[in-house]
Amino acid sequence: MSAKKRKKKIICAVGRVMLALITVAAFFGMSVSELFCREAEKEGFYEEEALKDANSPYLDRIAQDITDSLVELVEAQSNYGVIRDYLVSQGVDVQLYRDRGVYPMWGTYSEPYKAKITIRAELNYYETTGRDVWCGFYMSPKDSYYCLYLMRPDCPADAPIREAYDSLQILHDKWGAAMRTATATKIVFGLCIILYLFLFLERRYKRHAERKRDRGFLVWRLAVTAVCVVAIILTERLLEGRIAYWQFLSRILLRSTAVSLIPAAVLFQGTAASRFLYRLSQKAGRLICGILRKLPLLPSIIVLYAGVSGLELFFCFRSKWYWALGLWIVEKAVVLCVGIYLFVCGKRFLAAGELMAQGELNHEVSTAGMAGPLKQHGKNLNSISQGISRAVEAKMKSERMKTELITNVSHDIKTPLTSIINYSRLIGDQKTENETITEYAQVLLRQAERMKKLLDDLIEASKAASGSMEIHFAPCEVDVLLSQAVGEYQSRLEEKQLELRTVQPEETIRILADGQLLWRVFDNLLNNVYKYAQDGSRVYLNVEKTTDSVRIIFRNMSKFALNISAEELEERFVRGDKSRHLEGSGLGLAITKSLVELQNGRMELLVDGDLFKVTLVFGLLADEGKNTADNR
Amino acid sequence: MYHILICDDERDIVNALKIYLNDSNYALHEAYNGREALQVMEREEIQLVLMDVMMPEMDGIETMVKIREKSNVPVILLTAKSEDSDKILGLNVGADDYITKPFNPMEVCARVKSQLRRYLQLGGSSVRKEALRCGGIELDDKEKKVLCDGEEVSLTRTEYEILKLLMENQGQVFSPRDIYRRIWNDSPYGSENTVAVHIRHLREKLEINPAEPRYLKVVWGQGYKCEKYV
User: Fold this and answer.
1) Is the domain A474-631 a CATH 3.30.70.100 member?
2) What residues are paired with B146 via a beta bridge?
3) Which of A220, A338, B8, B210 has its CA 20 to 30 Å from the CA of residue A21?
4) Where are the beta strands (DSSP E) in A425-483?
């Protein structure tokens, strides 16, 4: 099984190598033959000595015969019809070349086609002037067309036309041989490749396509090849005019071979060579993309466009396609207008998108002057922003409603709660012998008070979390606030023999915050310390300043084992003591965190054994110097 | 004999308040909505009104406005709402004080007493020129005496000095450092807490609810000030 596979693999590899070799050889052969043709052409032009040596008696005879007859005819003042008939009888194309006794233009295919002038016009000239003319013709072996020359009798014997005529005979001979060889080579190679492709490769394509379960692949590939070949033929036909049938055939073969080879690359998928080529092209692509990405978009597009346009212009002048110049200008004008239009629209979209990204959802893109997909895009953008606004509004509304609901319900609960507290207190104040009643009344009162605290915390937590709290930012001095807060708690902390140790830098540290809210934060944290710190322990309050922020750190030893993580403590309704015997709602830290975040600060909790550590981080006030000056 | 009007739509609360304010000096009148309150006020000569804000028919704020059209009798609003905006609204329409439900009976009594004294004193006795006044607080520098709602309060020397400083410059915020420098004539190196503790004590002595002071306000993160009363 494996031997069979290996064999198959080897055959595949050999096939690939063969294909590669044949392809290379074919292209090499074609290139060589093309080069050969060119060399021959060059020789015909420049090697005069070589031209004189060559001779072709057959062509010379025909040419001489026709020339002589033509001269006779012209001298006999024959009209155009007679001359044409004669030329046709001699197998000469009546498409005549117009050249008034000067060097014949040749080498370019389009010239004779363009200069389609009837002999009559030329003859008429001589008729009216009454002058005699010399006549000559040549046959271009490359394109197999004939050219008739009319010369004035006073044209000297050593005139260029004479020379040209002579050289043409020789050139024809030499060229003819070269062209025949080259064309034969081309045809042979082309046929080989086509045969190879259509007999061998097609089977593999088919298999490949079947394996991929994509039968359309084959049809598609063939269709593309056919379309390409037809397009090439048509283009060449349009550009080159009449071409000898054998020349034409060789060209078709050459082009179709080249086109057929493009999809042949599929066969090389997965080979080392293709991987290498792929990696190479990938790297090159990345390099180019990297360079392009570094350039700003607009300038690079302008440069690229200007480059392409310049190249087009250059080719227009080079090929003397002046008619294309007009087209070029029209095209550029249209492209420029479209470009500016697209740029303006794109700029509008870009600006709108940026605003939207920044959260300004009320911005609307003006779709005035836009059309089609652009207008649709503008409308879509607008509807997106409207949609988001609606969603945000709905969210805000629901948050507000939630807060309102909590607040209203809490208020409604407070009224009956007032009576409960008042009457339980009144019961407790009653002078009665039954101590149980007093005791029960106290329980009632305590629990009712706790309920009141819960309600207050609930309102505050929902307000802080939903952001429906008014914040009045003002510069706050951290040390002042700290001393104020500590002053408020001093006596209460002393009650529990808690020793407060404050460490802070000597300089004044200012932050931008709402003093009232910040006090609530400190109040909550110090209240926690008061409630949960181990009696008689030390409480540390540190202020640390970094380059752009200030850290306020509260540290205390917990009275109870904190068998709970810091993350859980930040949650609502969670308390360090799971037994829930102590007063408090479990909302304190959640409220504190929300309040700190409302003031653009950060709260970090750390539980390490019995150590409970809260760190508040606030950004320093930027223009500190200015505010110090103001306060003086 | 002071005539006090208690107005709340909850009868239980009215009754409880009546029990708390059960004093031989007080004559208590009751009403269960704003309209009734106004009727009682027309009938009787009321010296103080204790009124709920949320009531059917005519709410506390509306009634408040009506009362102020005729008299400047002290009004203490009772409400379940504890938001600052509600307090400000209440005080802006002319309330003299504000108590949030559920209330502490001691606090209610203290505030009622305080308002009554202020109202009657302001109406009756003449103001001594030398004395500094801030709402119900009166500081007589000659006699070195501080009266809170007419009752003398005993202060330590430092507390007295701080209060004097703040009352002399009503509305102005003093940082703890400034206060220390002025009172102790010393640089406050590491002893700012002292000022805060003294002021806390002052508030405990002068304010009914030290956590929500009426006169000696804390400007958090900046300092302390004595609220300017007209």
Assistant:
1) no
2) B139, B153
3) A220
4) 474-477
